[in-house]
Write a structure and sequence with these properties.
Strand order of the largest sheet: 2-1-3-4-5
CATH class: Alpha Beta
Strand content: 15-25%
Distance between the termini: 34 Å
Number of helices: 4
CATH topology: Cytidine Deaminase, domain 2
CATH architecture: 3-Layer(aba) Sandwich
Radius of gyration: 14 Å
Bound molecules: tetrahydrodeoxyuridine
Length: 139
């Protein structure tokens, strides 16, 4: 990815922060998922009074992309903070790491954690979820 592509993905994730529905935790998360065909799907967290029903931002973006016919992904950017104010990096939860592993090659998929378009860290999914369980284990 070029630095312009990375900055664009970070801006798309930041734009989602005001859309987060987080009346319980007040922690807003935004995600922007880059598909192999170049399209970007965004997501925010969507909480529920029954707490476990909550959708994380990353899984919102993945579900939006898959439901629109995309299954090949290159990278995801994640941002978050209390009330939508980014104070630190927002790493993906374990459930979201597993959801990414369903569709993404662990070595080839990039996870970008950002504080701003200029301040970010880049990881492979394999770094964040080593020895992952997948469909290949079910045969
Ligand atoms: N959250 C996400 O959206 N993604 C993550 O990977 C971590 C947590 C959301 C879920 C909940 O709405 C809030 O952050 C606090 O846990």
């Amino acid at each position: 990815m070029t630095s312009e592509q990375t900055a664009g993905l970070i801006r798309a994730a930041i734009e989602m922060l005001p859309k987060a529905y987080a009346p319980y935790s007040h922690f807003h998360v935004g995600a922007a998922l880059l598909c192999a065909d170049g399209t970007v799907f965004t997501g925010c967290n969507v909480e529920n009074a029954s707490y476990p029903v909550c959708f994380c931002a990353e899984r919102t973006a993945i579900a939006k992309a898959v439901s629109e016919g995309r299954r090949a992904f290159t990278a995801i950017c994640i941002v978050g903070g209390p009330g939508g104010a980014i104070q630190d990096y927002c790493p993906p939860c374990g459930t979201c790491r597993q959801a990414m592993a369903e569709f993404c090659d662990p070595a080839g998929f990039t996870v970008i954690l950002a504080k701003s378009p200029e301040e970010y860290r880049v990881y492979s999914l394999e770094e964040l979820l080593p020895l992952s369980f997948g469909g290949q284990h079910l045969v």
